[in-house]
Design a protein that fits this description.
CATH class of the largest domain in chain B: Alpha Beta
Radius of gyration of chain B: 26 Å
Order of helices and strands of chain A: HHEEEEEEEEEEEEEEEE
CATH topology of the largest domain in chain B: TIM Barrel
Number of strands of chain B: 24
Distance between the termini of chain A: 52 Å
Strand content of chain A: over 45%
Number of domains of chain B: 2
Largest sheet of chain B: 8 strands, parallel, barrel
Number of helices of chain A: 2
Shape of chain A: globular
Oligomer: heterodimer
Structural class of chain A: mainly beta
Structural class of chain B: alpha/beta
Distance between the termini of chain B: 82 Å
Strand order of the largest sheet of chain A: 1-2-3-4-5-6-7-10-11-12-13-14-15-16
Strand content of chain B: 15-25%
């Protein structure tokens, strides 16, 4: 009886701690909400893989293979052997986003990944005197390299080093930044993740389009917290059973919640849905065949037009 | 002086004054002819940079054949020229000289220029002094006749001429190009105010030493014209030409026919798409922008010609759809000679029906032609464009567009690349009846300057009748 009381009390205290912890992170997230709409390196705010995009960009707690180098490097430790992956996105207004990456499991506790993300679109160049100079390409690149380690305390953590470069004609901005990720709570059915992107603010420096002056911009630090509840159920059928793996996720960043859900059937076929703040509903599906995985995400956007994102991954 | 004398004196003075005034006007007339020069790779009209936005003009009504003299038919040109002008074009190119001054006057009245062509038959022996003299005489007579008319932009000698006669290719081409240069020199002696050009089929015979077609041989020729039908763009021709000649280049024929041989139907969309992408390629290579070679182009052509089919199985009164020649540069590889017009024609009328390509060019050339679109089509008559693009934080970029409605309701917002709304723009100003102008200062709704990146201006338009349409414009902000 005493032992039961003690267990109940401990569970109660655990829940209280969790609420306090999450509250603390949310407050911190708002305190670090320096970044304004129209901030630097906007191209990095959209997520880069179809899986998390299909779930409303709830990337903080999801293991997404090589994409954790962007999403949350703490989960890179889950990588298995060699992983090669690529993403192609058709965005509104003919903006193209692509990613290729490679990940490798160094040990049971450590994984590393590398990736190259590129956004590009053609811009019609005009002058103030209303001359049309023709089309020119705006290109934004980000090269990632990240490591994840499954530490006992404070839990899995990871670090990503990234090099960013944006260019248009003679204009360019480039700089190096760091992202930090941590999974402080991970149980059989519940997970909490935290990412701190652009720790200390990523400083970009380059050359002005308008003159030969040096220009500087800063990508402000962004803190995001996410939680995931997941369960496995089996549906009995006459010739066996069907396994369902369900995940409910929510991310929180700067006053916005990003909810998502994923249902995997027999670990082969997955369906997803989410809500992407500022844009609208997202949908996705996934298909695993042996060592090949194909993901697709559809992002609704009433204002600007819909987006399609395809990801494929090969495990060797 | 009696009262009568006084009145006579005043009357005489009045007559004298009027006579002097009108005589002056008459004698001043030639002074209004534009001075057109070539400077480097640029074409200048009265000292100002000029881009040829033109149409090949050879309107031939149903039932008539080659050599039809449209200049004798005011009903034709008075119908066509306002439409050409409202498309945003500034030039027509003809294959022979008009015979009537009134036709040129109508051009001037509509603010249009003419590249006046002089037809030269292929297969002639250009080493023959008789042939040379006849051609020179004919061309110079044309120059003498029209050199003082304000509509004249350039003189064009020949069109895709292939020399005949005996001898090697080099000898035949040398004869042709020496004739072109001599003709150009004589034309310039007669009329120093207008450049002389010749029109080739592609660039392959330009700049060849053995053919006498290098710049050092073609000293009197001001610029080259080339006819190109290479599909979506002009492939490597601009680059190749750049290393071939230092003279300006104009694309004297380009376009796409409106008959789709694959489906045996008229395909205006296909034609419009090719014409759009071809003009965009010309635009990218305009010499008015940083060290490029091109001074513009004349799209082929203004209206269908029902006499041109190679088989002519239907005569001049039937619209033949048989394939005349193959061209793998187009997705529809069958070229149909009677379907090249950006307008179509019908029996018994000089009226033209505007094809999609007309509206596409009107958008590209900033014309107002789209205002003639029937109800139910686009509310936008031009694509929104912002000036300058890119812009920078804190600097105003003007977003301009034309609508078919003068009382439309316009709502506009700026979004960043993530799809987040940055700000709403104020209601547009209206510099002219159908022109709308929005402004964005590169700041968000909190009046903070935005950072570098792509922003999307979303413009939603509602007409008084309740129709609505939305267009987008990518605005780049860079510091």
């Amino acid at each position: 009886m005493i032992e039961k009381m003690s267990l109940r009390a401990r569970a109660k205290r655990g829940r209280s701690n969790l609420i306090i912890y999450c509250g603390f992170i949310m407050v911190l997230s708002n305190l670090t909400a320096f970044s304004k709409i129209g901030a630097s390196a906007i191209f990095l705010n959209n997520g880069i893989d179809a899986r998390t995009s299909g779930m409303g960009n709830t990337w903080t707690t999801v293991y997404s293979g090589v994409y954790n180098v962007y999403n949350n490097p703490a989960l890179l430790y889950q990588l298995e052997k060699h992983n090669i992956t690529g993403t192609y996105t058709m965005e509104f207004s003919d903006i193209r986003n692509n990613f290729i990456g490679y990940g490798h499991s160094v040990s049971t506790k450590t994984g590393i990944a590398f990736g190259w993300y590129r956004t590009g679109t053609s811009i019609e160049e005009t002058t103030e005197s209303e001359q049309i100079l023709g089309e020119n390409q705006f290109i934004a690149d980000c090269f990632f390299s990240g490591i994840g380690y499954n530490a006992k305390i404070p839990g899995p953590l990871g670090l990503t080093l990234k090099y960013i470069n944006e260019s248009f004609g003679k204009f360019y901005l480039s700089g190096i930044g760091f992202d930090l990720g941590i999974i402080p709570i991970a149980s059989k059915s519940f997970k909490v993740g935290v990412t701190l992107k652009d720790i200390f603010g990523t400083k970009l420096e380059g050359k002005s389009y308008w003159s030969n002056e040096t220009i500087k911009e800063t990508i402000e630090t962004k803190l995001r917290i996410g939680a995931m509840y997941f369960s496995e159920t089996e549906l009995e059928i006459p010739k066996g059973s069907i396994k369902f793996n369900t995940k409910f996720l929510v991310d929180y960043e700067q006053n916005f919640f990003y909810p998502g859900v994923e249902i995997f059937i027999q670990e082969i076929f997955g369906l997803r849905m989410g809500w992407l703040s500022g844009r609208g509903l997202t949908f996705g599906f996934s298909f695993w065949y042996k060592k090949i995985n194909i993901d697709y995400a559809f992002l609704l956007n009433e204002n600007l037009g819909n987006s399609h994102r395809f990801t494929t991954c090969l495990k060797l | 002086m009696t009262l009568l004398d006084n009145m006579k004196h005043k009357l005489l003075f009045s007559y004298t004054l009027h006579f002097t005034f009108y005589t002056s006007l008459f004698t001043l007339y030639p002074i209004y002819a534009a001075t057109v020069t070539v400077s480097g790779r640029k074409l200048l009209v009265d000292g100002k940079e000029f881009t040829i936005k033109g149409v090949c003009y050879s309107p031939t009504p149903v039932g008539y054949g080659a050599g039809y003299d449209w200049s004798t038919k005011p009903d034709i040109y008075n119908t066509d020229f306002p439409l050409i002008k409202s498309m945003g074009a500034n030039t027509i190119r003809t294959f022979g000289p008009p015979t009537q001054k009134e036709a040129l006057d109508a051009l001037s009245d509509n603010g249009l220029y003419i590249i006046m062509g002089y037809w030269v038959n292929s297969g002639q022996d250009f080493s023959s002094s008789t042939v040379r003299n006849n051609l020179k005489t004919g061309f110079i007579n044309m120059v003498k006749t029209w050199k003082n008319h304000p509509a004249v932009l350039m003189w064009a000698f020949g069109n895709e001429v292939w020399p005949g006669g005996s001898g090697t290719d080099a000898q035949k081409w040398s004869s042709w190009y020496s004739l072109v240069n001599e003709v150009a020199q004589e034309a310039k002696n007669e009329d120093p105010n207008h450049p002389v050009t010749t029109v080739n089929g592609d660039i392959w015979t330009i700049g060849i030493l053995n053919y006498g077609s290098t710049d050092s041989s073609m000293t009197a020729l001001d610029c080259w014209g080339i006819n190109l039908y290479l599909g979506e763009n002009f492939q490597d021709r601009f680059t190749k030409y750049e290393s071939t000649s230092t003279k300006p280049l104009w694309i004297s024929e380009w376009g796409c026919d409106a008959w789709d041989s694959r489906t045996s139907t008229e395909n205006q969309t296909l034609q419009a798409n090719y014409i759009k992408s071809q003009w965009q390629d010309i635009e990218r290579n305009l010499s008015i922008y940083s060290e490029k070679v091109c001074i513009g182009g004349t799209v082929f052509e203004w209206s269908d010609e029902w006499w041109k089919s190679y088989t002519n199985s239907l005569g001049n009164s039937g619209h033949d759809t048989s394939t005349d020649w193959p061209n793998n540069n187009y997705s529809d590889t069958g070229m149909n000679e009677e379907w090249w017009g950006i307008t179509s024609i019908s029996p018994g009328t000089y009226e033209k029906t505007l094809r999609k390509a007309y509206y596409e060019l009107a958008q590209l050339w900033g014309g107002t032609g789209i205002e003639q679109k029937p109800p139910g089509t686009d509310l936008f008559s031009t694509e929104p464009r912002n000036y300058p693009n890119p812009s920078k934080p804190g600097k105003i970029t003007k977003i301009k567009f034309k609508l078919t409605s003068e009382n439309a309701e316009v709502n506009s917002e700026i979004y960043d690349q993530s799809g987040n709304k940055v700000c709403e723009l104020s209601k547009p100003s209206k510099p002219t009846k159908y022109t709308y102008e929005l402004q964005w200062d590169g700041k968000n709704s909190k009046q903070d300057e935005v950072n570098s990146g792509i922003y999307i201006c979303r413009i939603e338009v509602k007409s008084p009748e309740g129709r609505s349409q939305t267009k987008f414009r990518k605005i780049l902000i860079v510091r």
